[in-house]
Amino acid sequence: MDIIREALSKGQKALNEYDAKRLCASFGIPVCCEAVAHDADSAVKEAVKIGFPVVLKASGKDLFHKTEVGGISLNLKNQEDVRRESERLLQIPGSDAVLVQEMVKGERELVCGLVRDAHFGPCVMFGLGGIMTEIFQDIVFRVSPLTIHDARQMVQEIQHKKLLESFRGEAAADIEALAQILVTLSEISLQYGNIQSIDINPLKIRPDGKPVAVDALVTLGKEPAKPVSKIAPKKDLTKLYKPDSIAVIGASATPGKAGYTVMHNILANGYKGKVYPVNPRGGEIMGLPVCSSIAELPDGVDLAVIVIPAQATVQAVKECTAKGIKSFVLCAGGFSEVNENGEALQEELTRAIAEAGANAVGPNTSGHTSTPYHFTTSIFPLGKVPRGNISYIAQTGNFATHTMYCIIIDENFGVARVTGLGNKIDVDESDVLEYYAEDPETEVIFLYLESIKRPSRFIEVAREVTRRKPVFLLMGGSTGEGAKAAVTHTASMASDERILDGTIRQAGITRLYEYSHLVLTAKALACMPLPKGNRVGFLAPSGAMLVVFSDLCQQRWNLDVPEAEEKTRRRLQEISPDFVRMRNPVDIWPSVFEHSVEFSYREAIEALMRDKNIDAVVPILMLAENVGIPPLDFLVKLANKYPEKSLYVAFSAERKHMEAAKAFLEPKGVPTFFMIEEPFEVLSILNRCRQNMQRPG
Fold first, then answer.
1. Is the CA virtual torsion 234, 240, 243, 247 positive or negative?
2. Cα angle at 523 between 375 and 687, to 5 degrees?
3. What is the pLDDT of residues 39-81, one digit of tens each?
4. DSSP letters of 11-67?
5. Strand pairing of 216-220 and 211-213?
6. What's the structural domain count of the chain?
7. 639 close to 647: Cβ distance less than 8 angstroms
8. Which listed site, 74, 93, 619, 649, has its alpha carbon 20 to 30 Å from 202?
9. What confidence category does residue 628 fall into, taking pLDDT thresholds of 50, 70 and 90?
10. Do residues 22 and 35 touch, judged by C-beta distance below 8 A?
11. Residues 201 and 72 in one domain
């Protein structure tokens, strides 16, 4: 584009405001009426043409922040005012012209722009503008390219979105016009690599609701930014999760050693393929003959699990690839996560994997699990891993070890696949997510990540899978500093967390904010269907609980507590004293006092489960010896009788009674929650998930 080429030829690092808006206008972004004047006389002439009142601004190739030097004069209503102010503005150091603009009417100011992030690539920003940009920092980001749905979603995400509605006699903002501006900025970012950032601030909303750019700044780079590549060949991870043979390099007969644990975990799960332990000492391990070297392995083993020190791992990989092995789990730590020497070693390992055309998980991984193929390579003594429909992707080793152990011991649901990514020299979250997307054994996907290796690729893969399967992500380490001091607001506010949050939303992934929700949400979906809506019915033995949790449903969890159907209310009234008015939520205590815990809960829960106005039911179950501990099989029967509804059981009880109920109910498919808030938190998460899966565009 001529404007950019000319500026770069003059050594400019940014376009002046006039040229910046000319650039925007050339792409169809609406800008205010304006002209450039080089003296007071021409400024007056241009003001007359535009029509009073007008705005004057000092203009110069290096004059970007005009407010700080008194370089703006507003609401000039006659020729004398324009002459006086233009003469003053031309005296400001760095000013070689005056920009004459229409005085745009409208009370609302927004900001939009683009910035190139070193990791995420080109990103588009939208938010509250004017001086409020820095005060409230009410802004959102998305990664290019944007769809029109992405852009509409951005506009609706700002906290002060009520400003976009009809306001003080002004029409509601034109949402489609705003969204189109954001899409246009995305297109600019992809077409012109020399544009480093664009800042449109303010983007005013006229009284008729139409947006118009009043000020703009475009910064340039001498060299075009490298395009962010998202197109990559799909990895074939079949042998990683469905190997017919496994070699354990560093297998050990000594309990407590990683090589022993990996062998034990593979065999304890009933793996049906061939297992080849490799150890220089030879002999026998767990009844299997040991190969004293990699060279003794038969050709074409499907998977090698390497459990030896980092310094020996590279050579082991080379020897394995020479034997035709193309899939690896690299367990050793001591690479880039440690020091510069480890980083150099990791680069050598990466080259070895790439040159062989192999697939590798790790290094610094705690292993992976594939229950449909009856094995886990975890270096933690997991033993037998129960099979289920939940799959995990975890960057940290702790999840694939300790957290998995807690799930096996304390929770009552199984998994399909678990992958500990480690340092991600080859296989990353995008590759595994793509495999899980097509995996019939995986119905729900959870991720714990501390970084996203290829954001554009991740978005591309996630957008497709999140329409078919629920996907949840807990992100760790997301509060690091992002952009430092920068010329534009857009660049200075492009923190890692803001862009990351936009990336997750753009991908259609449901974000988690607490570690426990990785387990609780999984348990809910392992047992019950994804609720069809956000309408919850609940029962409690306390009126105070009903009041508090009804408020929290509305204020915190975005859950609806609907009025029950007339037939539901009638049945609830039949099991309760006449002096109590029964409704949703249900105060169950009067009925319990008149009948029994089992009868009252059973009848009330079934009434709510039948109700067409309710998507999920949460009984807060009273278990106390003074009123009798009921048999709980009625809950299992109700869950089986109404499989389209979700039933989550919480408790008002002593710990010992909760633990006994959990031990009885969860193996039979009824999830329980010890903290009363937890089932509501999970329902709130699942409501967001359902909305993400049903999103347009």
1. positive
2. 130
3. 999 999 999 999 999 999 999 888 888 888 999 999 999 999 9
4. T-SEE-HHHHHHHHHHTT--B--EEEESSHHHHHHHHHHH-SSEEEEEE-TT----G
5. unpaired
6. 3
7. yes
8. 93
9. confident
10. no
11. no
Q: What is the CATH number of the domain that holds 641?
A: 3.40.50.261
* DSSP symbol at 324: T
**Cα(31)–Cα(445) distance, integer angstroms:** 45
> With contact defined as beta carbons under 8 Å apart, do 210 and 4 qualify?
no
Residue pointed to by tokens 């006699």: 169
* Domain that residue 662 falls in: 528-693
Residues 6+ apart with CB under 8 A from 433: 393, 445, 447, 458, 461, 462, 465, 471
Please give the single-letter amino acid code of residue 5: R
Tell me the three state secondary structure of residue 399: helix
Coil vs helix vs strand at 96 = coil
pLDDT computed for residue 483 by the predictor:
35
* Angle separating helix axes 2-9 and 17-26, nearest 10 degrees: 150
- Phi, psi for residue 495 in degrees, rounded to 5: -75, 160
CATH number, residue 68: 3.30.1490.20
Residue in the block written with tokens 């593979």: 266
* Token pair belonging to 555: 């204020």
**179: which 2 tokens?**
């969204």
pTM: 0.92
Contact between 666 and 488 (Cβ < 8 Å): no
C-alpha distance across the termini of the chain, in Å = 31
658 and 542 fall within a common domain? yes
Domain co-membership, 50 together with 197: no
Give the pair of three-digit tokens for residue 448: 């714990």
Residue pair 632/653 in contact by the 8 Å Cβ criterion: no
Helix pair angle (175-191, 148-157), 10° resolution: 120
- Pick from 55, 86, 102: which residue ends a domain? 102
Could you tell me which of 342, 335, 333 has the C-alpha nearest to residue 379? 333
Q: Are 252 and 260 in contact (CB under 8 A)?
A: yes
User: What are the backbone dihedrals phi and psi of residue 223, each rounded to the nearest 5 degrees, phi first?
Assistant: -105, 135
What gap in Å lies between CA 219 and CA 536, rounded to an integer?
A: 51
- Separation between Cα atoms, residue 128 and residue 160, nearest integer Å: 7
pLDDT band with cut points at 50, 70 and 90 for residue 488: very low
State phi, psi for 26 to the nearest 5 degrees.
-65, -20
Residue written as token pair 């929770």: 411
User: Radius of gyration of the chain from Cα atoms?
Assistant: 31
